[in-house]
# Entry
Amino acid sequence: MLLVVEIAAFSLRSPAFLSAGNISNLLAFTPELGMITLGMTLLMTAGEFDLSVGSVFGFAPIIMWTLYNTHIAPLEVGFVVALLFAVIVGLANGWFVTYLKIPSFLVTLGMLLVVRGIALYVTDGFPQRTWTADAPLMKIVVGEFAIGDLYIYASLLWFILFAIILGYVLTESKAGNWIQAAGGNPEAARARGVRVTYTKIALFILTAVLSAYAGITSSIRVSAANPNSGTGYELEVIAMVVIGGTALTGGRGTIIGTVIGVLILRTMRNGIVLIGVPGLAYNIFVGGIILAMMALHSWLERRHHAGT
Amino acid sequence: MPEELVRMDRINKFFGRVQALNDVTLSVNRNEIVGLLGDNGAGKSTLIKILSGALPADSGDIFVHGNRVKIRNTTDAMALGIETIYQDSALISQLSIARNLFLGREPLKSPRFFDRLDQDTMNEVARKLLKQVGIKKEIPPTTPISALSGGERQAVAIARAMHFESELIILDEPTNNLGVEETQGVLRFVRGARDSGHSCILIAHNIYHVFQVVDRIIVLRRGKTVADDIDPKRTTIEAVESIITGMPISA
Ligand SMILES: Nc1ncnc2c1ncn2[C@@H]1O[C@H](COP(=O)(O)OP(=O)(O)O)[C@@H](O)[C@H]1O
Ligand SMILES: [Mg+2]
# Structure
């Protein structure tokens, strides 16, 4: 609902908002953040979250392109190595959180710094060149095609596919039942034979891999792998997921809500700039929306309890 | 000769230097309702947690149908037909009734596609079970637990134990926080359990409730079994109270 109002308002204020060029623009970047939010939604539903997504987003493409540029490995191998790196990051996050019982805030904050630090250290802070070569891998990940005036990247299709699969997993599958149970009441879930630890570790890995994949997508699209890219994404991603209705405390979350949350924040950022509000004011709106959403949630909850 | 279902033999359990259980032996026969009594801190919860796989024993053996078994976790216990219902009934409040009933033992549907849940079956079975445990209101099985009353939640936990054909259902203070009506519902269930072929261990603060429904009473005091064969039909509440506290009946 909010999304519709927002789109209507922006289109009225600025006709450029609905132009094909602008929509292409919007749809080019949205899937990259969007993929991270999908993993984060499942992870937060299971009662954890991950602040290291932005760092992984930045570092994974550096691994891939460094291996390729230094002729150590072909692009495809670099791609696989980068994803394997993400698996290790996810595994480490999950292990610290579940076995050492350290809150995910601290674990993934540490991981954020470690991974970003490595990225800056190995590159001396300089971006890696990426080739505009026509490797088939690059075509598959972000190939561009036009529908009329609209330029669409393959990454949008991947995002939609991932969203459908993960949405299905969350609501229709046994894994989804376990994810919600693990976040809702881990002790009770464990008592029913739900493998809570395993579920959480798997979700940390999924989130890291999606972040790496999103980072690689981004590096191909903008033709550069910058060790600083993805800085601050973790909070924007969490904001999108929370606006989409997922509880920060776990147990409740939906993929469709998250997709709407992503669209709300992306169109807002885009629209604000187009209607001439300085882009720097964007955070005011994001913060405002989050506070309003939380107030609405708590109000609905209280009213619900009063009614029963 | 009654057939022995479960036997816990010389169980010991320490928490640091506190000995919570000291050579405790407990047995339950088929179709028998056993009341487990004892003062606060006597070790009742610890004992049944060991039987339900929530805690490991330091020493001692457990037999089910005469075979020695290892119960390492709650899944092992459930596989042996031992189901426990705790005070807080251990449900996931965000999940629906049906999803709670089948949590950990979800029915799946083919084509499997990442283990697809058979939600039709889940909802249908849930609806039937809710009727069986005496919820008269028409509550849809997709209702989240958070929308239910305390008694309804307990009923869901009991329904779960019944459905999975547990041979032994353990209830640890199941009537705490329940209203009068709801308490009667739970007691009725315990009484009925025998007829449907289940055995029960009932722990409750209220001795009157225990007297109403059980076949035999076992008393723990400071981690030791002080009585294991009290017939509630042939003794008085005062006599049992004195065994629990270890003090002579005050006249
Ligand atoms: N997790 C634990 N850690 C330390 N001591 C415990 C723990 N659980 C129980 N105890 C101790 O073990 C004894 C028995 O407790 P419990 O089995 O809960 O008694 P009951 O259920 O009969 O009231 C008590 O002295 C209690 O303090
Ligand atoms: Mg107790």
